[in-house]
Structure prediction request, 110 residues.
Amino acid sequence: MNTKRMIKQSTLSFIVFTTLANTSVFAEDSTFANVCSDCHAGGFKGWVSGAPNINKKNKWDEFLNRHTAEEMKEIVVNGLSDHKRKGGCKTCSKDDIEASVDYMLALVSQ
Ligand code: HEC
Prediction:
C-alpha cells in the first residue's frame, strides 16, 4: 500500500471513529445504564458477582480472548451458567441487549 493511500485510510478511520464517538456507540446506552452497569461498572453488585468492570480493561482481556463479540451477544441474550439471560432484564429486546454489548465492547477496547 502506498503512503498516500495509508494516510487517506487513517484519516478516514479517524473521522469514522470520532463520528461514532460522538454519536451512537459512545452515547450512554440506556440498557447498559439501567441493567448492565449494576454489575459491570464496579460497585457492590459488581464485587459480589465478579463481573468484569468496564473501567478495568485488563479484566476484559481474558473474556476478549475467549469469545468474539458475536459469542458474547449470544451469551448475554440467552444466558449462560454465570450470566443471567439478558442480564436479568425481562423487558429488554434482543436488539437492546446486542446494542448494550456493542457499547460495552467499544468502551473496553478503546
Ligand atoms: C447480576 C450481575 C450482572 C448483570 C446485571 C450483567 N452482567 Fe454481564 N457478567 C456478569 C458476570 C458475573 C460475568 C462474568 C461471567 C464469567 O465469569 O464467565 C459477566 C460477563 C459478561 C460478558 C462477558 C461474557 C463472556 O463470557 O465473554 C459480557 C459481554 C457481559 N457480561 C455483558 C453484559 C450486558 C450487556 C449486560 C446488560 C444487558 C450484563 N452483562 C448484565 C454479571 C452481570
